[in-house]
Every structure is written in C-alpha cells, then in structure tokens.
Amino acid sequence: MQLLSSNIAQDIINEGFAFGADFVDVFIERTHNDGMVFKNSRAEDIQSGTIFGIGIRLIHGEQALYGYTNSVDREELLRITKLLGARIGGEGKSLNLNFEKLTYPKVPTLLDKEIDAKHKLAHLKKIDEILRMDTKVSQVMLNFTKKKQLIEVYNSEGLFATEERPYIRLFHQVVMKDGNLQTEAFYGPGAIGGWEFIEKLNTQEICANLLKQASTTLYASPCPAGKMPVVIDNGFGGVIFHEACGHLLETTSVEKKASVFWDKMGEQIAHSAVTALDDGTVPGAWGSLSIDDEGMPTQRTTLIENGILKRFISDRLGERKTGHKRTGSARRQSYKFAPASRMRNTFIQSGSYQLDEIINSVPDGIYAKKMGGGSVDPSTGQFNFSVQEAYLIKDGKISRPVKGATLIGTGPDIMAKISMVGRNLELMAGMCGSVSGSIPTTVGQPPIKVDEILVGGEA
Question: At a CB cut-off of 8 Å and minimum separation 6, what does 100 contact?
Fold first, then answer.
C-alpha cells in the first residue's frame, strides 16, 4: 500500500512548476518507534509511537524552498506548495508524468524479527545483573531503541522510489565508584536489522569489557600534557575523522566555502597512508541505506585515496551549487527536514600494520584505546575530544593507565600526521547532528598512529 497517491504527487509537482520551479520532489515518511530505558534495575520508560508526514521541496536555480505537513489531504498539500511557489513568483509549465518505480540493489540487513516487551525487559535485566555483580558499580543505564521507517519519494523527473529501513540499537552505560573516585564506561552497538542483531551480541564479553574499562580508568593517574605521538585504536576512534574531516567534505560546507578543503580537489590533504571512504552499502551497518532520501541508490564513495582528495559528499542541491556529482548522500532526520549532504558509514580504510607494530614505533606517547565525546568547529576542523580509556606508551610498550586525556588539533593537521594505519578495521554506531537533523551514522577506522598531536592532561 502506497503512502501517497501518485495522482496527488503529480498535482503537487505541477503546482510547483506552475510557479516557476525547475525541480520538485515529495518525501513521504511513516516511522514506528519503540524504546525502553532501563535504569535503577527497572524499566523506567517504555515508549512506542508512529509518526507520519510529507515534505515538499521546490528548487529554482540554487534556491530551495521546503514545507511539510502531517496531512494527506490534496488541498492542504497544494496550499503548502502554493505558499512555497509564491516565493519564487515565476511562470512555469505543467508536466505529464508517468512515474516509474525505481529498482535498485537492496543493502543486506539482519531480519527484522519482532519481539515482545517482556522478552526485551528480561534481556536488559540480565545485562543489569551481570554488571552489578561488581560491587563498585553504582549505576547501570541501558537504552534500547528500535524503529522501522518506510519512505516514498516522488520527483519531477518521473521518479517514484520506496524503501523500508529497520534500525535497532542497544546503548550500555555503567557508572563505577570507590569513595570519592568515580568513572563511567559505555558501549552502543547498532545496526540495520531487528532483534537478531541483539541476540548475536556477546553479552558476557560486552559486560566484561565495560567493567574492565571502568575499573581501569577509576584508579588511573592523571594524564601528562603536551605534544606527543598518539596511537588511536579502532572503532569509535573514527569519530575524530568523522567530525574533524568528514563534515568538511560535505557539500553543505563546501558550497559556502566554509570548509578548508572546498578548493582542494585532487590535492594532497592527508598523509599518503590514509585512504578514507563513505560507504552506504555496508551490509547491516547502522548508517547503510539502499537509497538516499532523494531516491538515489546509495554507493561506496572514496573520499581520500593515498592522501589525495578524490570526492566530496554531495546531494542534489550540493551538485547544483558546487558541480560535485551526487553520491547518494541526501539524508534527513524526518519529513520535517529538507535533505542535505550527510555521511553514512565513514571510515579510514585498513592498512598493513598490526597494533603491536604501531605501538612499538612510539618511544613515548599515549595509547587512546577508547574515545569519548568532544566538539569541533566545522568551519576550521578545530576539535577537542576526550579519551575515555588511555595508557602511556614507554619505550614502545603499553604502560600504566591515565585519565583526563583530551586530544586537541585540527582536521587538516591530524590528517597529515597519520603515518601508520593498522589492519583491524572496526565500525561503530553513532548519531550525527547537522542542518538536516540527527541521523544514524557509522564511524570507524583501524588502529592509527598520529605522529604528533596536542594532548591535554592534568599531570
């Protein structure tokens, strides 16, 4: 069953063209959300609901106008289109469209298996019990989220596209105390799929790693400060590339010349050891899509190859404004947002080194095993990220744990100083906020060595 009649979509598009638009698209969304927050050894919040809405976009040259509604009423949709079109104020023509349904390769997902609330609650309770076996654990917080998003896209080129996207994620957070000392650890795996993804997680291993990380950082000594080499481990370590470089490669930044890389196509912007991709086709990955929110099939995009800038992350409007071809990267949080060029699964590709080889190459420095949160100025790439779990490196060996470490620098600078890239690539789920809202994205990398970076610390 279609969410919106193709006849009504045709009428909306004709109305937009009557006002002088040269491109019109209609985005329809129905999303069912389920969630459960488990805290204080009980379910504190259980959520369930469905959202539905329609977004209408008119493009005239490089100008884009956007409106949305919850209504499927033809007259209401035409009223919104007229309000948008009045801001163009031109004269156009009508189109006689025969919408052709897009066929495309589907990105493999884990089956979207349904499970009742009782089963979910029992699973979260089991995790809580395992973590609380350590008497130093003062709080466990688990956040289970699941949503199924169905989208449809019509546009004035005759495209009709539809996709169903199941998302699932389980966020673990543990707080550990001993006297006046307190620390926390977290882990938040997510995927495109259903409960099978949760069943495949090794709960015992996840809990053991969280407890080890928390107990290690609880008694760690303060981190020294200064410029030094840093080895950043795989997985969520890729958040630095995502924030400090990835956003600078989106045409939303490039079109405003707000990115330091806007005019660097074909130039060396990173060390020759670095090849980075934005890939929407990774099977089951949290940031994967079969089509983007403009109805374009997604793809694997090489952004940087051996340090050379090869592509930008682009959507339809970004292509119009910059000339950089679309990459299937138009994304939005919901129908309430116009699409924009956004990352999907963005990562540094595997290199040739083992982690031990990278560590052994550092006489004195820091091993950042787990990265935490941070902030970045997208116009410059200047970042400040906390390290959740860190160790000193002495004479090429991992030494004692340290806490309070932060990594401070800029995207262009750190990209030029990644001299060694490891073999063990790992991807991690996260949420990314930008002009088109908060969307599921994946960050990732193998272990890397940054020859020099400013480390903030309290020692």
Answer: 158, 159, 160
